[in-house]
């Protein structure tokens, strides 16, 4: 904080030790440009969810603009945690994965760290490196060397590796005396009973293997306790026919990369290795655990499950018996990847993506909300702002032909309630608005007409639009009107069995049958599985309904099939046209909604403004519920704020209405 220039500088935070640092920086500087890279693994959601501070750590990472992981597995675990614990879904767009978090897009990057090529090449160029290589080559003359380089801890699988090597010698007696496993053991990074237990296990297994298969002039397993200099490790890399990385769980682990570059050699080493010229073929073999970060990058490596001793022993046999041409081809493939994806490439790539991710700050307004480790920043477009009650009430008072359009679920009523019927406050505020003769008020919902008619029967002057506009109830009529489209609903016979199949296969899902549409709900299903099944169902339905006059759409925890030409946007167009035809074009439009279907209303209103279907002086308020990307220009935080704002408008109407006895009773009832 003492040195940063938040308007110019980029901050790159590294590894799990500093996971919560982004929260403190974001609290101080709302627009700071932040990147984070996790060098270790990210646990699965089943493990991570046991942490008492799980949400605080997730929110801290989400305060970054770019989060980097070594592999897709680690990124997938993080995204799954965000989905299950914070309800955040990710989207992939043009090759980039992003999470929308309070108006900011948090980008996810997957790129393993590379090695410093210059460092290894400089070590190989030192005058005494060929001397060390020559000494080792003479020491292990006539033997095939398998190499392991690991820290001493419970995750590196050294004991399992030794057991597999013992099984190799047991099953292949011809390898006794000719194959050696050299294990370099780096000094433990910590001390404790667990480290001592690991060391005891390693020593016991090595001693047993050497006792059974060794002799006076042959030691099958050679343990070299650290610290060992990097130059000495390079010398061992150079003389080893195969490197074995057998960790049961690890981050990236760069040992295979260093081995590949060392095996490529240098002019100084060619003479020692008996290679003539730089064009001489190079070869290497890598046995790598499938549970470490570099495994996906090394497509030519022999991948193993370290817990399967027989599998690892077989891999060692394959490495030893592999033809030279195959070793050369694998080495060439790996060397090309390692040299083109070195640490400089990794840093440049992350830097470029961080700049791209932070470009959003040039066009958004930001401010912080929350306390402590739950601090986060809200980013909104320059024209997207919170709807002020004072502002809309002022415009409301100065207009005389008003159109008020309200979604129901998630707008007037919270999504998480099981009982979706309107409460007294909702009925009261709607009656207050409907009693004003200058108002046309409509509930525009995706729900069926029977539910809406039953729930809103106390609101005699309220208009209803059901099933996204397929049915309309005008206050002056006593019956529902259909949209007028000639609709063939025979497609339901195709869709219903498919939805029933997915419902049976997805616990917590359900089907809602409407007269004009079918909706598959997965809000109560497992978040990951429900989303996955929804994508599958969407693809399935789009393929079988390609020639049918229907639209298949995904919404918030739903997949819906409905006739073409039916949408909430069409409802808005019809209402505006009807009011214009009666000589009272709306000079005040308020439209509130919360999900994707309501974006059709916002888009229709914007089109009406652009085409001058509304008067030039009309006051237009398109408002979404929640801070998220939207066609609307205003937002309210939740349903409580929506009701409070409507109560403000209702109160303004009550003050303007004539004091007739009829109106006085109506006003008192609504208030």
From TrEMBL:
<dbReference type="InterPro" id="IPR003337">
    <property type="entry name" value="Trehalose_PPase"/>
</dbReference>
<dbReference type="InterPro" id="IPR006379">
    <property type="entry name" value="HAD-SF_hydro_IIB"/>
</dbReference>
<dbReference type="Pfam" id="PF02358">
    <property type="entry name" value="Trehalose_PPase"/>
</dbReference>
<comment type="similarity">
    <text>In the C-terminal section; belongs to the trehalose phosphatase family.</text>
</comment>
<keyword id="KW-0328">Glycosyltransferase</keyword>
<dbReference type="InterPro" id="IPR001830">
    <property type="entry name" value="Glyco_trans_20"/>
</dbReference>
<dbReference type="InterPro" id="IPR023214">
    <property type="entry name" value="HAD_sf"/>
</dbReference>
<dbReference type="InterPro" id="IPR036412">
    <property type="entry name" value="HAD-like_sf"/>
</dbReference>
<protein>
    <submittedName>
        <fullName>Probable alpha,alpha-trehalose-phosphate synthase [UDP-forming] 11</fullName>
    </submittedName>
</protein>
<dbReference type="GO" id="GO:0004805">
    <property type="term" value="F:trehalose-phosphatase activity"/>
</dbReference>
<comment type="similarity">
    <text>In the N-terminal section; belongs to the glycosyltransferase 20 family.</text>
</comment>
<dbReference type="GO" id="GO:0016757">
    <property type="term" value="F:glycosyltransferase activity"/>
</dbReference>
<keyword id="KW-0808">Transferase</keyword>
<dbReference type="GO" id="GO:0005992">
    <property type="term" value="P:trehalose biosynthetic process"/>
</dbReference>
<dbReference type="Pfam" id="PF00982">
    <property type="entry name" value="Glyco_transf_20"/>
</dbReference>
<dbReference type="GO" id="GO:0005829">
    <property type="term" value="C:cytosol"/>
</dbReference>
